[in-house]
Amino acid sequence: MRGKVTLKQITGTVIAAFLAMALLSLFFFGKSRNFFDVRQISAQELMIQALLFAFLFGLFFAFRKKLSYVLEPIWMATLWLVYLFFFSVLAPVESLAFGALLVSIPAVYISFHEGFTLKKESFSKNRIKLNKIFIYLNYTISLLLLVILIFKAGAVYEPYLGRNGSLISDAHVLKADWDTYFYLGLGIMAGLILGHIFQTDPLKDKTYDKKKELTIIAIVFIALLFEGFLLSRILVSRIQTLSTSTYDFGIFTQMFHNMRRFEGMVTTLERGFLLNHNFVHVSPIYYLMLPFFALFPYPETLQVLQVIVVASGVIPLYLIGKHLRLPPIILAVVELVYIFNPAIVSSSFFDLHENCFLAPLILFVLYYAIKQKTIGLIVSGILLLLVKEDAGIYLVFIGLYLIFGMDRKNATKSEIRLNIIHGLGAIVVAIVYFTFAIAYLGILGTGAMLWRYGNLNGYTDLGLFGTILSLFQNPSYFLATLFQPSKVYSMLVLFAGCAFFPFFVRNMADYLLLGPLVVVNFASNYYWQHQFGYQYFYGGGVLVIFVAMLAIKENLSLGFLMSFTKIKRAIYQFVFVALAISMTITIGLFLGRYHYVTDYRNNFFEYDNMRETLEAIPRDKKVVATSKLTTFLGDRMYLYDYDYYDFDNAIELMDYVIIDIRLYEHNLPGMEAALTALGYQPSSLSNSDLLVYEPAN
């Protein structure tokens, strides 16, 4: 027991010392260094900060017994809130204050929870009074954070003229996005109404019988059919209207055709020469789709397969909900939240991507982890690693959660030991695999895309280690990067889709599960990683839902709520709010992309004519085509994207050069002149929509 307490104390002391050091750094160093330019840090500062951290660690550890007079969660929450307060005061723009207010919610919730805990403990009156002072201080700081946000919203912004590595600006977080206001408001109202209509007694809605299970399965199945059909129709219509681009769907279409011919995962589209896709991203998981594509070798097959893969996540999610003993009606709603989650659904909008496997596989890993099923954990963990070279980041944080976050109060020593073994195993395997994958890409491939995180590195010559040092030295810059206006907007929509339940967990180790969301979606300045509509939210999206499930489970079973049936009913209602917000936002996203369906319906003669022209190109010919045409031309070994093909240095003429007149109408004279000068002439295959060139005789 002493060892466990010591480990907890050390962990808490490290965090406290780091927060105190970060707070002092806000005052010691200038605004440009703290918020705009991480490259202003230096090795001399590192020595000072390291010594300061060591001193603070020793100080907190030496006085740990006196500090324990105030409950650790309370004074840790105070430290975090004080840091956020001064971060907001010094922040140059509104979005930073908005983000600080957002991430202050867990500290306020913990303070609220610990206030009830005090009533159960046999503490002295003085100790209770001191703890209450800290709790009220935390409430006060949170209100001040709101005041600061209001002030920042109306303050005049002085543009920073130096290097703005964090890309912060004075743009408003919700940027007059009236659609979002409407969908959020409609979702809240609809959720409250649904919660009232389906009101149930929380004390009775605990048991599962066959009828309830069949009802949940039927509801989920019908919802899956509806959402899957609608999403598939939109994605297939993108193909029918020749709207899919080379990057990335054209690449994958050509790759699957080559895989079907037993040529391997090779493409010429990805880098302009014959290359195995695993030299760019290590994604052998695609072979699980190959048998289906072999039977139905069409690009539409890949789009539908992606929808099915993501939909399969309802299976482990249901099993997780039953293991957590969530009430049947809540589990049914959580399943629907997954099906209509805007972050997950919109990740499919940019066509097929290997990331689609993340959603079900992460949930399977979590299920086998909490069930302590070693074989299932190993198999699902290996499959997860095969998705992409960086998929190990999910295993690392899940491993940390198993070690620090799993419920220890109700677990036996053997269960705790097995969790630690599973957690350490997952972390070690993930790190080893990542190291080998990065080395493989560096030696045989095109190199790992670590450049996307160059915005965080103040010591670029030290690589990844330099990023770690930079995060230690300049946490305020890291937060500034996370709280760019467009990123805070994505955070709001993402967490609103779960009714902000993930912010209401008492066990801070649960937030380890959100680590991949921070790293993959918000730490980088690579624009698409934090935008809905691209393939980057499959992993982070399901982790947010899982943490929401943990929060719901915890809040329904907390002792201080046992007598508060009204609060329990409120939890039920806000589960419906999560569903309604997810559905309204997702329906809005569907409506915004349904134009592909109507476009094909209204112009199918034109598009079918274009497809017939493309299909008339012999499959044994070498072709250069503009981006929107490569999907339909993917059934050939040698195919190149017009915008990336090096015509000037080509050693031979291509058999055909095909230009989509829809997209290049204004550039046609220059393009035609350039092709003529290179030795090409118009082909008889040309029509009003496609300009086809072939070598001149």
| Extended strand count | 7
Mean pLDDT: 89
Cα radius of gyration in angstroms = 28 Å
- For the termini, the CA-CA separation is 86 Å
Number of DSSP helical runs: 28
- Give the biggest sheet: 5 strands, mixed
Please report which band the strand proportion falls in: under 5%, 5-15%, 15-25%, 25-35%, 35-45% or over 45%: under 5%
SSE class: mainly alpha
State the strand order across the main sheet.
Answer: 4-3-5-7-6
The amount of helix comes to: 55-70%
Stretches where pLDDT is under 50 for at least 5 consecutive residues are 1-5
Shape: globular
Could you please describe the fold and organization of this structure?
By secondary structure, the chain is mainly alpha-helical. The protein has helices spanning 2-28, 31-36, 43-62, 64-67, 72-90, 94-120, 125-154, 178-197, 210-240, 246-260, 290-295, 299-311, 314-323, 328-339, 342-346, 358-370, 374-385, 392-404, 413-443, 464-473, 475-482, 485-496, 515-523, 538-557, 565-593, 595-615, 661-664, 668-678; strands spanning 266-267, 275-276, 623-625, 639-641, 656-660, 680-682, 690-695. The protein has a five-stranded mixed β-sheet with strand order 4-3-5-7-6. A two-stranded antiparallel sheet has the order 1-2. A hairpin with a 7-residue loop joins strand 6 and strand 7 (690-695). Helix 16 runs antiparallel to helix 17 (374-385). It starts with a helix and ends with a strand. Residues 1-5 have low confidence and may be disordered.
